[in-house]
Amino acid sequence: MYQFNPVTQRDGAKLRKYYQNCQYGLCEYSVGTKLMWRQTLHPAWAEIAGCLVIRNTIEGQIVFDYPVPGPEGDEDAALEAIEAYCLEKGVAPVISVVPECKAAKLLARYPYVLVSDIRTWRDYVYYREDLQLFAGRRYSGQRNHIKKFHAQWPDAEFRQLTAADGEIIARFWQDYEAEFPKGDNAKARDELELAKKMLRMVNKPWFVAGGMFDGDKLIALSLAEKCGGTLIIHIEKALYSYTGVYPTLVQAFAGAFGDGCQWINREDDAADRGLRTSKLQYGPAKLAPKYRFEPQNELTRHVNAIPELKTERLTLSALTEADIPAYNALVLDGERNRWWGYDDVGGLGGPVEERSFFDVAQRDFESRQAVNFAVRLDGKLIGEAVLYRFDCRGGAELGCRIDSAYAGKGYGTEAFAAVANWALYKVHLTRVVAKCFKENQASYKMLASCMRKNGEDEAFFYFEKLV
């Protein structure tokens, strides 16, 4: 299991190693967004297969950014690691803020997936030349505002901000709050506090910052980060009493720091009506989508109820309350289950009660995480077959165990083959996998009779059945 570390300022240089050349063009793929919104996103990072993998926890749900590869990064291996992590945690592998250039890859990867692209979170992306020059009829309004601004404040000038400007920036915030138009808006005030914290990092090499000055007075400021061919604007604030200062700042900032960038990203509007109106007036080249991929497993789509399967000698069907005594005896047979590979008792996370194992099986099917079949001989439960660990890519794992009193008669092979065929041809999986301990020769023979061996390690032999 990979170790994810919470994102802090100390991690900025490590994250920039990936973000500085990232061509995704979205604000989430930047150090600034991770730091500014870390109390909301709770981002944690790991380096996997030469890629930066970010795990966010938003309102209690784990979601991942799309992996950002380094020079030798393997995106597929990083995605597989995300999927394995989610399997281990028992959560869906949700991949969010996916850039448009990677959407087709994920559509091809997941047979069943819910995809969303909410307008509110799309980034406003502009051609750098448009904001730098404001050329053409559509920018006549901005040019007029800039002209009026310079006419009223002819000595105003733009210059870079550095760590030496700490006191000047602090005075700006005092002036800004004195005329802050959203003082009674809690969300806006929270965002303002975050902006103040970000400007304290003006000395960090990841950021560029600049401001408009009226003499010695700072009247507007902006902080940004270059990621690939995109200049991402994290902060953009100005004194409203200086009419025309916003377009003047936008143009000056693009001219000062836009070299080498094709795009300028002014981030999303967070459903703020005023911001939306303003950002649209600057003529974005595109509203960059941020796709959210929520892979679904085949149980969700194809299995409403556990079916009854029949073989030559057996019937496989859902567990019932009448099965509880026999099922408990099967699960608690320690000698028989030493090769099962799963600690049923430890997995409960609490004391064993009469309904414990039955209830777990019920919940797993209700959440479509697993299917537990009772293996029956003449109506009596003699074992179980479990289809579980759905990888959301067309695969699942199958396990089978038979009561010791009925071992050695081929019942396990018969039950296993029946569930494997049901999974492949009725649930529409493309791959069923299984494993057995190397010491377990009986299971090895059973699996080898109906599946193909495809590998081994120190502990297990691995098998698969494909269609």
Structure description:
- The protein is an alpha+beta fold and 467 residues long.
- It has 3 domains: 5-122, Aminopeptidase (3-Layer(aba) Sandwich), CATH 3.40.630.30; 125-267, Gcn5-related N-acetyltransferase (GNAT) (Aminopeptidase, 3-Layer(aba) Sandwich), CATH 3.40.630; 298-466, Aminopeptidase.
- Helices cover 35% and strands 27% of the residues.
- It contains 17 helices and 23 strands.
- It has helices at residues 12-19, 31-36, 38-41, 75-89, 100-109, 128-133, 140-152, 166-178, 186-199, 245-257, 273-281, 298-302, 324-331, 344-348, 356-366, 411-425, 441-450, and strands spanning 5-6, 44-48, 51-58, 61-65, 68-69, 95-98, 113-116, 123-127, 157-160, 208-214, 217-227, 230-238, 263-265, 286-288, 291-295, 309-310, 315-318, 370-377, 380-388, 395-402, 431-437, 452-456, 460-466.
- The strands form 3 sheets. Strands 1, 2, 3, 4, 5, 6, 7 and 15 form an 8-stranded mixed sheet that branches.
- β16 (309-310) and β17 form a beta hairpin.
- α16 (411-425) crosses α17 (441-450).
- The two termini are 30 Å apart.
